[in-house]
Design a protein that fits this description.
heterodimer; A: 292 residues; mainly alpha; MetI-like fold; B: 297 residues; two-stranded antiparallel ribbon; 12 helices; 2 strands; 3% strand; globular; disordered N terminus
C-alpha cells in the first residue's frame, strides 16, 4: 500500500504516526503528486529538445504540436553529417581526456601537500586557493587570454588541458578526503621509511578511488561543457570543441530544428555519463559542495 | 622531548619536499587564476593595440567606463538580476528540498531527476530554452499555455520579462544542486526533535516552520551570497538569447566584458570592467567569509 512505506521514513517533518489522520494521508498524496509535477518541469525541456529534433522545420514552424508525427532518425544523420560533428566530438574528447588527467594530478598533489605534508607557509597557498573559489576565473578570462597569446599557445589544446589542473573546488574536495584518511596508515608508512612521494603513490592513491571517481566525473562534465575558454583559444583553428561548434552553429542561418539537433548531440554524452554515475554525482554534489 | 628535537631537524626537509611537490600545481594556479587577476589590473591602467600594451593612462579607462551608458545599464541590470534571483532562485531550492524530503516513494529517482539539469552544458541549456520560449502559437510554452486559454506571448522580446525569464532558466539549471545540499542538511536533523515537537502539540506545518526552516538558515545564508556571486557571471543567457537586448535590457556585466573583448578587441576596457566585477566580488566574498565564520562559532 501507498502509506505502508511511511513506517520506514527516516527524515522530514511527517512522521509515521501522523499517518493515522486522513488529513496527513491527503497531504502525503499531494506531496507525491507535487514531486511528479516537479519532475515534469525539470525533465520537460530536455525531453522536448529530443522530440522537436525529429520534426522538419516546416512542421516545427507551422504545427503547434509537441509530439512529432513520426520519429525520423534520418534527420539526425543528415544534420550530423552537415555539421561534420564527428570531428568536433573528437576534439572535445581530446580536450576532456587531457583535462581530466591534469585535474586529477595537479589538484590531487596540491591537496596532498596542503593536507598531509603541510610545509611551513602552506596556509598562504590554502588561503589563496580559498579566495579563488569565490572569484570566478571567468572574470579574469580576458587577461588570461592575453597571457596565453603572449606565450603563443592559442589554437592549441595545452592551455585547456592545464586550466582544469588549477581548480580550487577540486583541491578542496581532495583535501577534505585526504584529511579523513586514517592517520595511522600514513604514520606507519613514514616509520617504514617511505618518502612523501612514495607514501602518496603507495598509500594515498589506492585509498582514494572514490574521490578520484567523483573528480573524474565532475571534470569530464566541466571540460565537455566549457565554452568560453575553448572559444577564445580554439575558434577558427579547426580544433573547435562541440560547444564552440554549437555556438557558431546557433549564430549561423541554421534552422531551429537543426540547432536543436546539435543541442541533442551535445547533451547526449553528459546525460549518458549522468545516468551511469547518477549515484556518485548526486552524492558528490550534496556532500562536497559546501564544506570548503 | 626527543621526538620534538628530531621533528625540528626534519622541519626544513619536510618543508622543502612539501613545496617542491606542490610547485607545479602552484605554477598552474598562478598562471590560470592569480596572475590574470593582477594582469587585469595592469591592463586596465593602460591603452593597448590588440594584445600589445601601449601607454599608462592611470584611471582613464575607469573614468570612461563609469560614463559609458551601457555600463550603467549593465550595473542597473545586475541589481535587477539579483532581485529576481532572490525571488525565484533563493526560495525554490528550499521549497523543493522540503517537498522531496517528505515523500517516501521514488525518492532516489526524484533526487537524480532534480539534479539532471545541472549536468546539461550551460550553452546547450540556453539554446534549448531559447526555442522553448519561441514566439507565436508554435512556441512550446505558448502551446502549453494555449491549453489554459492564454494568448501567445512574445516572451524574450518583452523587456519586462527578459531578465526574470533568464533567472528562471538559471534556476531551472541550478536549483537541483542546492536542493540536494538542503536535503542532506534536513536528513541530519535528529528525528527525536520532531517527536518532541509532536508531544508539545506541533502539527506538520509547525514542525517545518520551527524545526526544518531554522536548521536550513545557516546554509541559506551561504547560498544567498553564492547566488549573488553567480549573478556576476551571467553571460551565456543574454549572449545567446538576445545579444543582451532587447535594447540592452538584459545586458550583464560579463556580457559587457565579452563585447569589449570579442567585438571591439578593446582588452584594456574589458579588463577594467573585469576589475570592477572582481572588486564587487571580493567585497561580497569578505561578507561570505564573515558569515561562514560566525556559523562555525
Amino acid at each position: 500500500m501507498f502509506f505502508d512505506k511511511y513506517g520506514k521514513k527516516e527524515d522530514g517533518a511527517i512522521r509515521f504516526y501522523d499517518l493515522h489522520s486522513m488529513k496527513t494521508k491527503i497531504l502525503a498524496v499531494t506531496i507525491f503528486i507535487m514531486c511528479i509535477l516537479i519532475m515534469i518541469v525539470t525533465l520537460f525541456p530536455v525531453v522536448w529538445s529530443f522530440l522537436a529534433s525529429f520534426r522538419t522545420i516546416k512542421d516545427f514552424n507551422n504545427n503547434p504540436a509537441i509530439i512529432p508525427e513520426k520519429f525520423n532518425f534520418k534527420l539526425f544523420a543528415s544534420t550530423w553529417k552537415e555539421l561534420k560533428f564527428s570531428r568536433n566530438y573528437m576534439n572535445s574528447l581530446i580536450v576532456v581526456i587531457g583535462s581530466v588527467i591534469s585535474a586529477i594530478i595537479f589538484n590531487g598533489i596540491l591537496a596532498y601537500s596542503l593536507s598531509i605534508i603541510k610545509p611551513k607557509g602552506h596556509k598562504v597557498v590554502l588561503g589563496l586557493v580559498m579566495w579563488s573559489l569565490l572569484i570566478p576565473p571567468m572574470t579574469s578570462m580576458v587577461a588570461l587570454f592575453v597571457n596565453i597569446n603572449k606565450l603563443h599557445l592559442t589554437q592549441s589544446y595545452i592551455p585547456l588541458w592545464l586550466m582544469l589542473g588549477a581548480n580550487a573546488f577540486y583541491v578542496i574536495l581532495f583535501k577534505q578526503f585526504f584529511e579523513n584518511l586514517p592517520k595511522e596508515l600514513i604514520e606507519a608508512a613514514k616509520l617504514d621509511g617511505a618518502g612523501y612521494m612514495q607514501t602518496f603513490i603507495k598509500i594515498i592513491v589506492p585509498l582514494s578511488k572514490s574521490i578520484v571517481m567523483v573528480i573524474v566525473i565532475f571534470s569530464i562534465n566541466a571540460a565537455w561543457s566549457d565554452f568560453l575558454m575553448p572559444y577564445l583559444v580554439l575558434n577558427g583553428s579547426g580544433k573547435e570543441t562541440v560547444m564552440v561548434r554549437l555556438f557558431s552553429f546557433q549564430g549561423s542561418n541554421a534552422t531551429a530544428v537543426e540547432v536543436l539537433r546539435a543541442v541533442v548531440f551535445s547533451i547526449i554524452p553528459p546525460i549518458l555519463l549522468f545516468f551511469i554515475f547518477s549515484k556518485q554525482i548526486t552524492e558528490g554534489a550534496a556532500t562536497g559542495a559546501l564544506k570548503g | 622531548m626527543v621526538g620534538k628535537i628530531s621533528k625540528k631537524n626534519l622541519f626544513q626537509k619536510k618543508d622543502l619536499i612539501g613545496w617542491a611537490i606542490m610547485l607545479p600545481s602552484i605554477i598552474l594556479f598562478a598562471f590560470f587564476v592569480w596572475e590574470p587577476i593582477l594582469e587585469s589590473v595592469n591592463l586596465s591602467l593602460h591603452t593597448a593595440k590588440g594584445f600589445r600594451i601601449e601607454e599608462f593612462v592611470g584611471f582613464d579607462n575607469y573614468k570612461q567606463l563609469f560614463q559609458y551608458p551601457v555600463f550603467l545599464q549593465a550595473l542597473k541590470n545586475t541589481f535587477v538580476y539579483i532581485f529576481w534571483s532572490l525571488i525565484l532562485g533563493f526560495f525554490t531550492p528550499m521549497i523543493l528540498a522540503i517537498i522531496i524530503t517528505e515523500t517516501v516513494h521514488l525518492k532516489s529517482i526524484f533526487k537524480i531527476g532534480i539534479y539532471l539539469p545541472n549536468i546539461v552544458p550551460g550553452l546547450a541549456t540556453v539554446i534549448m530554452w531559447k526555442y522553448m520560449f519561441g514566439e507565436g502559437r508554435t512556441g512550446v510554452i505558448n502551446i502549453l499555455l494555449s491549453q489554459l486559454g492564454i494568448e501567445p506571448q512574445v516572451w524574450l522580446n518583452n523587456t519586462m520579462l527578459t531578465i526574470p525569464l533568464i533567472v528562471l532558466i538559471l534556476t531551472w539549471k541550478g536549483a537541483g544542486a542546492t536542493t540536494l545540499i538542503y536535503m542532506a542538511s534536513i536528513s541530519n536533523i535528529d528525528p527525536a526533535l520532531y517527536e518532541a515537537a509532536t508531544i508539545d502539540g506541533a502539527g506538520i506545518i509547525k514542525r517545518v516552520k520551527h524545526i526544518i526552516f531554522p536548521s536550513l538558515m545557516p546554509l541559506a545564508k551561504t547560498m544567498l551570497i553564492l547566488q549573488i556571486i553567480s549573478v556576476f557571471q551571467i553571460l551565456y543567457e543574454p549572449l545567446v538569447l538576445k545579444q543582451g537586448g532587447p535594447n540592452n535590457a538584459s545586458i550583464s556585466m560579463m556580457m559587457l566584458v565579452w563585447n569589449y573583448a570579442n567585438r571591439e578587441f578593446n582588452y584594456p576596457m574589458a579588463s577594467a570592467t573585469s576589475v570592477v566585477i572582481c572588486v564587487i566580488l571580493i567585497i561580497l566574498s569578505a561578507i561570505y567569509f564573515k558569515l561562514t565564520k560566525s556559523k562555525e562559532d
